[in-house]
From TrEMBL:
<protein>
    <submittedName>
        <fullName>Lar family restriction alleviation protein</fullName>
    </submittedName>
</protein>
<dbReference type="Pfam" id="PF14354">
    <property type="entry name" value="Lar_restr_allev"/>
</dbReference>
Length: 124
């Protein structure tokens, strides 16, 4: 992953716009998988949307009149909450499974080796 993609994922609007100009699709907002642009309508004026390539994920962006608009919509993201599992309100719900894989039961997602997951919630 390039530096510009990392900055875009961290919510930097200029980096998100630069990725769009370069036709770089950010990873799926839901599962982190690779994304692709698809033409979703062939009747009348074509419409385009970005979706996750993983068939089980189901993440799909809204349809737009141009590929550039579809990519911009997909790449524009808010700043994610950042924190490690020990700082997460859900940390009591983490269990270790076979082969040392750590799993957040609350959100049914794998906890990455660096201690970050996709379901961070700040403690109040």
């Amino acid at each position: 992953m390039t530096d510009i993609e990392i900055r875009a994922l961290l919510g930097d609007m200029r980096s998100q716009e630069e990725c769009t100009r370069k036709r770089i699709l950010l990873p799926c907002w839901r599962c982190g998988g690779e994304a692709e642009v698809k033409q979703v309508s062939t009747v009348g004026q074509p419409l385009f949307a970005v979706s996750c390539k993983k068939h089980y994920c189901g993440a799909y962006g809204c349809a737009h009149r141009t590929e550039k608009e579809a990519i911009l919509y997909w790449n524009t993201r808010p700043v994610p909450p950042l924190g490690r599992c020990v700082e997460c309100a859900n940390s009591p719900d983490i269990e270790t499974r076979s082969k040392g894989m750590r799993w957040c039961r609350n959100f049914r997602s794998e906890v990455k080796p660096d201690g970050f997951c996709n379901s961070f919630a700040a403690k109040e």
